[in-house]
Design brief:
- By secondary structure, this protein is mostly beta strands.
- The protein has two domains: about 160 residues, Acetamidase/Formamidase-like domains (Jelly Rolls, Sandwich), CATH 2.60.120; about 80 residues, Acetamidase/Formamidase-like domains (Endonuclease I-creI, Roll), CATH 3.10.28.
- The strands form four sheets. Strands 1-5-18-7-16-19-20-22-21 form a nine-stranded mixed β-sheet. Strands 2, 4, 6, 12, 14, 15 and 17 form a seven-stranded mixed β-sheet that branches.
- A hairpin with a 3-residue loop joins β19 and β20.
- α1 packs across α2.
- The chain is globular, with a radius of gyration of 19 Å.
- The two termini are about 25 Å apart.
Length: about 300
Protein backbone atom coordinates (compact mmCIF):
# COMPACT_ATOMS: atom_id res chain seq x y z
CA UNK A 1 0.00 0.00 0.00
CA UNK A 2 1.17 3.54 -0.78
CA UNK A 3 2.23 5.58 2.28
CA UNK A 4 3.00 9.19 3.12
CA UNK A 5 4.69 10.25 6.37
CA UNK A 6 3.69 13.29 8.42
CA UNK A 7 7.01 15.02 7.74
CA UNK A 8 5.54 15.77 4.32
CA UNK A 9 3.07 18.41 5.50
CA UNK A 10 1.69 21.79 4.50
CA UNK A 11 0.27 24.64 6.58
CA UNK A 12 -1.73 26.19 3.76
CA UNK A 13 -3.61 24.79 0.76
CA UNK A 14 -2.29 26.24 -2.50
CA UNK A 15 -1.87 25.31 -6.15
CA UNK A 16 1.80 26.25 -5.71
CA UNK A 17 2.55 23.47 -3.21
CA UNK A 18 4.77 20.83 -4.85
CA UNK A 19 3.17 17.38 -4.63
CA UNK A 20 4.74 14.99 -2.13
CA UNK A 21 3.36 11.98 -3.98
CA UNK A 22 1.63 11.23 -7.28
CA UNK A 23 -1.00 8.47 -7.41
CA UNK A 24 -3.46 7.04 -9.91
CA UNK A 25 -7.20 7.42 -9.50
CA UNK A 26 -8.41 4.47 -7.45
CA UNK A 27 -5.32 4.35 -5.22
CA UNK A 28 -5.62 3.46 -1.53
CA UNK A 29 -2.91 4.88 0.72
CA UNK A 30 -1.97 5.45 4.36
CA UNK A 31 -1.32 9.02 5.50
CA UNK A 32 0.44 9.61 8.81
CA UNK A 33 -0.51 12.85 10.58
CA UNK A 34 0.78 15.13 13.32
CA UNK A 35 -1.74 16.53 15.78
CA UNK A 36 -2.94 20.09 15.20
CA UNK A 37 -0.02 21.47 17.23
CA UNK A 38 2.54 19.55 15.12
CA UNK A 39 3.09 17.41 18.26
CA UNK A 40 4.60 20.40 20.10
CA UNK A 41 2.63 19.85 23.34
CA UNK A 42 3.89 16.77 25.17
CA UNK A 43 3.35 18.05 28.72
CA UNK A 44 0.74 20.05 30.62
CA UNK A 45 3.60 22.32 31.66
CA UNK A 46 4.07 23.50 28.06
CA UNK A 47 4.17 27.29 28.00
CA UNK A 48 2.30 29.21 25.36
CA UNK A 49 5.54 31.02 24.48
CA UNK A 50 7.26 27.73 23.64
CA UNK A 51 4.78 26.90 20.88
CA UNK A 52 5.48 27.94 17.30
CA UNK A 53 2.03 29.19 16.35
CA UNK A 54 3.02 29.21 12.67
CA UNK A 55 3.01 25.40 12.89
CA UNK A 56 -0.67 24.82 13.57
CA UNK A 57 -3.02 22.48 11.72
CA UNK A 58 -0.50 20.71 9.48
CA UNK A 59 -2.00 18.61 6.70
CA UNK A 60 -0.07 15.68 5.29
CA UNK A 61 0.43 16.06 1.55
CA UNK A 62 -0.32 17.31 -0.94
CA UNK A 63 -1.05 14.35 -3.18
CA UNK A 64 -1.34 14.76 -6.95
CA UNK A 65 -4.10 12.49 -8.30
CA UNK A 66 -3.58 11.66 -11.96
CA UNK A 67 -6.50 12.62 -14.20
CA UNK A 68 -8.00 15.16 -11.78
CA UNK A 69 -8.78 18.37 -13.66
CA UNK A 70 -10.65 21.56 -12.76
CA UNK A 71 -14.38 20.92 -12.85
CA UNK A 72 -14.00 17.27 -11.79
CA UNK A 73 -14.80 15.83 -8.36
CA UNK A 74 -12.34 14.06 -6.05
CA UNK A 75 -13.99 11.19 -4.17
CA UNK A 76 -12.26 10.40 -0.88
CA UNK A 77 -13.33 7.27 1.01
CA UNK A 78 -12.21 7.20 4.65
CA UNK A 79 -11.26 3.56 5.07
CA UNK A 80 -9.65 3.63 8.51
CA UNK A 81 -8.51 6.03 11.25
CA UNK A 82 -5.86 4.80 13.69
CA UNK A 83 -5.11 6.98 16.72
CA UNK A 84 -2.04 7.41 18.89
CA UNK A 85 -2.28 6.55 22.60
CA UNK A 86 -2.29 10.16 23.82
CA UNK A 87 -4.09 13.32 22.82
CA UNK A 88 -4.09 16.93 24.00
CA UNK A 89 -6.57 19.75 24.50
CA UNK A 90 -5.89 23.44 25.07
CA UNK A 91 -7.71 26.65 25.91
CA UNK A 92 -6.54 30.21 26.16
CA UNK A 93 -7.44 33.89 25.95
CA UNK A 94 -9.32 34.83 22.78
CA UNK A 95 -9.55 31.18 21.73
CA UNK A 96 -12.97 29.69 21.00
CA UNK A 97 -16.37 30.66 22.34
CA UNK A 98 -15.21 31.03 25.96
CA UNK A 99 -11.86 32.68 25.26
CA UNK A 100 -13.08 36.06 26.50
CA UNK A 101 -13.40 34.55 30.01
CA UNK A 102 -10.19 32.51 30.12
CA UNK A 103 -7.17 34.32 31.48
CA UNK A 104 -4.26 31.97 30.69
CA UNK A 105 -3.22 29.31 28.25
CA UNK A 106 -3.75 25.79 29.61
CA UNK A 107 -2.95 22.43 28.02
CA UNK A 108 -4.32 19.08 29.15
CA UNK A 109 -2.91 15.67 28.19
CA UNK A 110 -5.63 13.12 27.43
CA UNK A 111 -4.57 9.44 27.57
CA UNK A 112 -6.37 6.96 25.31
CA UNK A 113 -7.10 3.63 27.01
CA UNK A 114 -9.46 0.78 26.17
CA UNK A 115 -11.07 2.77 23.37
CA UNK A 116 -11.87 5.66 25.71
CA UNK A 117 -10.37 9.11 26.24
CA UNK A 118 -9.50 9.65 29.91
CA UNK A 119 -10.43 13.17 31.09
CA UNK A 120 -9.71 13.36 34.84
CA UNK A 121 -11.83 10.44 36.09
CA UNK A 122 -14.22 10.53 33.15
CA UNK A 123 -14.16 8.04 30.30
CA UNK A 124 -15.16 9.73 27.05
CA UNK A 125 -16.26 7.51 24.13
CA UNK A 126 -14.10 8.02 21.07
CA UNK A 127 -15.39 9.38 17.80
CA UNK A 128 -12.22 9.48 15.66
CA UNK A 129 -12.60 12.08 12.92
CA UNK A 130 -10.61 14.28 10.54
CA UNK A 131 -10.63 18.04 11.11
CA UNK A 132 -8.62 19.26 8.10
CA UNK A 133 -9.15 17.63 4.72
CA UNK A 134 -9.31 19.13 1.26
CA UNK A 135 -7.78 20.14 -2.05
CA UNK A 136 -5.98 23.20 -3.39
CA UNK A 137 -8.20 26.24 -4.02
CA UNK A 138 -8.44 27.83 -7.46
CA UNK A 139 -6.51 30.93 -6.44
CA UNK A 140 -4.29 32.07 -3.62
CA UNK A 141 -3.23 30.37 -0.43
CA UNK A 142 -5.66 29.33 2.31
CA UNK A 143 -4.36 28.47 5.78
CA UNK A 144 -5.02 24.91 6.92
CA UNK A 145 -6.85 26.54 9.85
CA UNK A 146 -9.52 28.00 7.55
CA UNK A 147 -12.35 26.10 5.82
CA UNK A 148 -13.86 26.91 2.44
CA UNK A 149 -15.20 25.48 -0.80
CA UNK A 150 -11.94 23.50 -1.08
CA UNK A 151 -12.58 21.79 2.27
CA UNK A 152 -9.83 22.62 4.76
CA UNK A 153 -10.54 23.00 8.49
CA UNK A 154 -14.21 22.02 8.35
CA UNK A 155 -14.07 20.18 11.71
CA UNK A 156 -17.04 18.05 10.68
CA UNK A 157 -17.36 15.08 13.05
CA UNK A 158 -19.09 13.09 10.29
CA UNK A 159 -15.75 12.84 8.45
CA UNK A 160 -14.91 9.52 10.04
CA UNK A 161 -14.40 5.85 9.14
CA UNK A 162 -16.83 4.69 6.48
CA UNK A 163 -17.67 8.17 5.22
CA UNK A 164 -16.99 9.34 1.68
CA UNK A 165 -16.22 13.01 1.09
CA UNK A 166 -16.52 14.65 -2.35
CA UNK A 167 -14.49 17.76 -3.19
CA UNK A 168 -14.69 20.11 -6.15
CA UNK A 169 -11.40 20.02 -8.05
CA UNK A 170 -9.94 23.46 -8.78
CA UNK A 171 -6.42 22.66 -10.01
CA UNK A 172 -4.79 19.90 -12.02
CA UNK A 173 -4.06 16.90 -9.80
CA UNK A 174 -6.39 18.21 -7.05
CA UNK A 175 -3.44 18.40 -4.55
CA UNK A 176 -5.20 16.58 -1.73
CA UNK A 177 -4.07 16.76 1.92
CA UNK A 178 -5.44 15.93 5.37
CA UNK A 179 -4.62 16.27 9.07
CA UNK A 180 -5.92 17.57 12.42
CA UNK A 181 -7.30 14.26 13.74
CA UNK A 182 -9.52 14.23 16.81
CA UNK A 183 -10.10 11.32 19.18
CA UNK A 184 -13.36 13.04 20.15
CA UNK A 185 -14.99 16.35 19.29
CA UNK A 186 -18.44 17.80 19.82
CA UNK A 187 -20.35 19.73 17.18
CA UNK A 188 -19.09 23.31 17.28
CA UNK A 189 -15.65 22.51 18.75
CA UNK A 190 -16.48 25.38 21.11
CA UNK A 191 -13.13 25.45 22.97
CA UNK A 192 -11.14 25.64 19.66
CA UNK A 193 -9.72 22.16 20.17
CA UNK A 194 -11.18 18.70 20.24
CA UNK A 195 -9.02 15.93 21.65
CA UNK A 196 -6.16 16.63 19.24
CA UNK A 197 -4.13 13.54 18.38
CA UNK A 198 -1.64 12.15 15.85
CA UNK A 199 -2.58 9.10 13.84
CA UNK A 200 -2.72 7.29 10.53
CA UNK A 201 -5.58 7.60 8.04
CA UNK A 202 -6.21 5.16 5.22
CA UNK A 203 -8.05 6.72 2.27
CA UNK A 204 -9.03 5.74 -1.25
CA UNK A 205 -8.86 8.49 -3.87
CA UNK A 206 -10.91 8.46 -7.07
CA UNK A 207 -11.51 11.08 -9.76
CA UNK A 208 -15.12 11.48 -10.90
CA UNK A 209 -15.79 13.20 -14.21
CA UNK A 210 -19.08 14.44 -15.60
CA UNK A 211 -20.31 16.12 -12.42
CA UNK A 212 -19.23 19.25 -10.58
CA UNK A 213 -19.70 20.68 -7.10
CA UNK A 214 -19.69 24.14 -5.55
CA UNK A 215 -18.99 22.88 -2.03
CA UNK A 216 -17.86 19.60 -0.45
CA UNK A 217 -20.38 16.83 0.07
CA UNK A 218 -20.35 13.76 2.30
CA UNK A 219 -22.19 10.49 2.40
CA UNK A 220 -22.23 7.47 4.66
CA UNK A 221 -24.50 4.45 4.91
CA UNK A 222 -27.52 6.46 6.03
CA UNK A 223 -27.25 10.10 4.90
CA UNK A 224 -26.01 12.53 2.28
CA UNK A 225 -24.85 15.99 3.35
CA UNK A 226 -23.73 19.27 1.88
CA UNK A 227 -21.04 21.24 3.76
CA UNK A 228 -20.52 25.00 3.51
CA UNK A 229 -18.35 27.60 5.24
CA UNK A 230 -18.93 31.35 5.50
CA UNK A 231 -18.22 34.38 7.67
CA UNK A 232 -21.37 33.74 9.71
CA UNK A 233 -23.14 30.57 10.71
CA UNK A 234 -26.37 31.93 9.22
CA UNK A 235 -24.72 32.32 5.84
CA UNK A 236 -23.09 28.88 6.01
CA UNK A 237 -26.46 27.27 6.77
CA UNK A 238 -28.10 29.01 3.83
CA UNK A 239 -25.32 27.93 1.47
CA UNK A 240 -25.49 24.29 2.60
CA UNK A 241 -29.28 24.20 2.29
CA UNK A 242 -29.35 25.86 -1.11
CA UNK A 243 -26.71 23.50 -2.49
CA UNK A 244 -28.77 20.48 -1.41
CA UNK A 245 -32.09 21.87 -2.67
CA UNK A 246 -30.57 22.76 -6.05
CA UNK A 247 -29.04 19.30 -6.49
CA UNK A 248 -32.23 17.45 -5.61
CA UNK A 249 -34.34 19.71 -7.82
CA UNK A 250 -31.94 19.20 -10.74
CA UNK A 251 -32.12 15.39 -10.68
CA UNK A 252 -35.64 14.75 -9.37
CA UNK A 253 -37.69 16.88 -11.74
CA UNK A 254 -39.62 18.30 -8.78
CA UNK A 255 -40.22 22.05 -8.69
CA UNK A 256 -38.07 24.10 -6.34
CA UNK A 257 -41.08 24.82 -4.13
CA UNK A 258 -41.79 21.12 -3.52
CA UNK A 259 -38.14 20.25 -2.90
CA UNK A 260 -38.04 23.07 -0.36
CA UNK A 261 -41.10 21.71 1.42
CA UNK A 262 -39.67 18.18 1.42
CA UNK A 263 -36.35 19.32 2.84
CA UNK A 264 -38.14 21.33 5.53
CA UNK A 265 -39.87 18.09 6.56
CA UNK A 266 -36.93 15.67 6.52
CA UNK A 267 -33.64 17.61 6.27
CA UNK A 268 -31.48 18.53 9.25
CA UNK A 269 -29.39 21.68 9.63
CA UNK A 270 -26.37 20.96 11.84
CA UNK A 271 -23.30 22.84 13.08
CA UNK A 272 -19.78 21.59 12.31
CA UNK A 273 -17.67 24.31 13.96
CA UNK A 274 -18.02 27.90 15.17
CA UNK A 275 -14.42 28.80 16.13
CA UNK A 276 -12.46 29.12 12.89
CA UNK A 277 -12.06 32.22 10.69
CA UNK A 278 -15.11 30.96 8.80
CA UNK A 279 -18.06 29.07 10.32
CA UNK A 280 -19.05 25.65 8.94
CA UNK A 281 -22.49 24.04 8.73
CA UNK A 282 -23.91 20.94 7.10
CA UNK A 283 -27.34 20.02 5.76
CA UNK A 284 -28.17 16.36 6.23
CA UNK A 285 -30.70 14.32 4.22
CA UNK A 286 -31.53 10.66 4.96
CA UNK A 287 -30.85 8.33 2.07
CA UNK A 288 -34.30 6.74 2.33
CA UNK A 289 -35.75 9.96 0.90
CA UNK A 290 -33.51 9.78 -2.15
CA UNK A 291 -34.26 6.08 -2.56
CA UNK A 292 -38.01 6.74 -2.57
CA UNK A 293 -37.44 9.50 -5.12
CA UNK A 294 -35.29 7.02 -7.09
CA UNK A 295 -32.47 9.54 -7.50
CA UNK A 296 -28.78 9.91 -6.71
CA UNK A 297 -27.34 13.39 -6.17
CA UNK A 298 -23.68 12.47 -6.28
Amino acid sequence: MEQLKCQHSIYAFSRNNPPMKTVRSGTTLQMETYDCFTNQIQSEATAVTSIDWAQINPATGPIYVEGAMPGNVLKVKIERIELADQGVMAVGPKLGVMGHRIDAFQAKIIPIRNNKAIFNNLEIPLNPMIGVIGVAPEQGEISCGTPGAHGGNMDNKMITEGATVYFPVFVEGALFALGDLHAAMGDGEIGVSGIEIPGVVTVSLEVIKGISLRHPMLENDSVVTTIASALTLDEAVKMAVEEMVDRIAAVSGLPLSEVTMLMSAVGQTQICQVVDPLMTARFVVPKWVLQQLNIAII
